[in-house]
Amino acid sequence: MLDRDDWQSGGREDGPMTSGLRSRVPTISISIGLVFFVQLLLAQSNTLDTLNHIDQLRNKGEYEQALRFLEPMVRSNTLEPWETGRVWILLGSVYQDLGRYSEAQRAYQNAISLFKNQPGREREEAVAMDNLGSLYLEIGQPETSKRLRLQVLKVAARISDHAGMARIYNNLAATAEVQKDWKEARKWLGNAWGEARLVSNPRADDVAAINCNAGWLSTHDHDYEQALKHFEAALAFWTEQHGMNHQLTGSGYILRGRTLAIMGNARQGLEDIRTGLAIIEKTVGTNVPVYFAARLVYADALSGAGSKKEGKAMRATAIRSLESLRSTSSQFPISADAFR
Questions:
Q1: C-alpha to C-alpha distance for 199 and 214, rounded to whole angstroms
Q2: CA–CA separation, 246 vs 197, rounded Å?
Q3: The dihedral sign for the CA sequence 233, 237, 240, 245
């Protein structure tokens, strides 16, 4: 098992293994792809092998290739209902990464409907609900996200799923940070650390996400040295797990660069931010919230480095773009299937 210091530093004996208008760059709230499901099965099926390959494409940022597999699969009538549900979840994760929020929502809700009341499929239903909670947080509906995550927490606690509980507590911390409820964020994050220490082989994305949200709390406390340690740990895990061609890696560079700029290292900070922007643009394009949020960070760093006119213009453009995206994605209805 890892103690908290191991998680913060990124240290593991076997190496790293491998979320409204928010504060500059997104607070991390994890949506789960296929890897979670591998742990649920006693044997691999052909469908699972295919999904594992597709999830690897997603982790590399090869989204269009992933969609060419997934979209025909959900239209076929050859899969068992539980297999189709898993395809919907992975498809929803790809859509969410791409900022195609209405399609992601529909995918997750389709999965929830398929798994609901099926014996032995409670965990899969919980994953779909948790991912839907991640989506609602991303489009600026934190209360709905919180309600979903609290439902999922009950499932994880009932089956003593410590990895799942660590993930959900951290996602609740992300929600509280978005709402600027720092006391509640500390409580949830403390619970996440506690559950994480009970996991012998945690997922690197989960480790990175907990470090990321801990970094935001340290930033709120103006403890930038500690924030930098958390963000560097998150970046190390994301780079090891996903390489340089993934939006999470790009976000890690943005977070580290922002912190360095605040600490007075404008040169390195701007270099990191530019690197992160380039990664995000390459993987998910320039019409998604994470890109515009990263542009806000860049604008502020430019202003802090003396390019005030350029920074001010960039900030205004990024804010307009974020508000435009928000206006088209914040009115999603939610199916009652998502709540027990």
A1: 18
A2: 27
A3: negative
CA count, 13 A, side-chain hemisphere, 49: 4
Residues composing the chain: 340
Task: Please say whether the beta carbons of 211 and 234 come within 8 A.
Answer: yes
Whose CA is closest to 90, among 44, 136, 56? Answer: 56
CA distances from 30 to 167, 170, 269 (A): 7, 9, 25
pTM: 0.78
Q: What CA dihedral angle connects 318, 146, 217 and 253, to 10 degrees?
A: -40
Distance of CA 126 to the CA centre of its chain: 16
Closest listed residue to residue 231, CA positions, set 208, 261, 265? 208
pLDDT in tens, 297-335: 999 999 999 999 999 999 999 988 877 766 655 455 544
The alpha-helical segments, DSSP class H, found in the chain are: 4-9, 35-38, 46-59, 63-75, 81-97, 101-115, 122-138, 142-158, 162-178, 182-196, 204-220, 224-242, 247-262, 266-284, 289-304, 308-329
Per-residue tokens: 128: 């779909």
The full set of domain ranges for the chain reads: 23-338
What pLDDT digit, counting tens, does each position of 86-115 carry? 999 999 999 988 878 899 999 999 999 999
Residues 6+ apart with CB under 8 A from 75: none
Burial of 264 by CB count in 10 Å (0-12 exposed, 13-18 middle, 19+ buried)? exposed
Residues 173-225 have pLDDT tens digits of: 999 999 999 999 999 999 999 999 999 988 899 999 999 999 999 999 999 99
Asked whether the beta carbons of 113 and 336 are under 8 A apart, the reply is: no
Go through 274-293 and write b for each residue having 16 or more CB atoms within 10 A of its CB, e for each that does not. Answer: bbbbebbeebbeeebbbbbb
Q: Which fold has domain 23-338?
A: 1.25.40
> What sign does the CA torsion over 326, 280, 170, 89 have?
positive
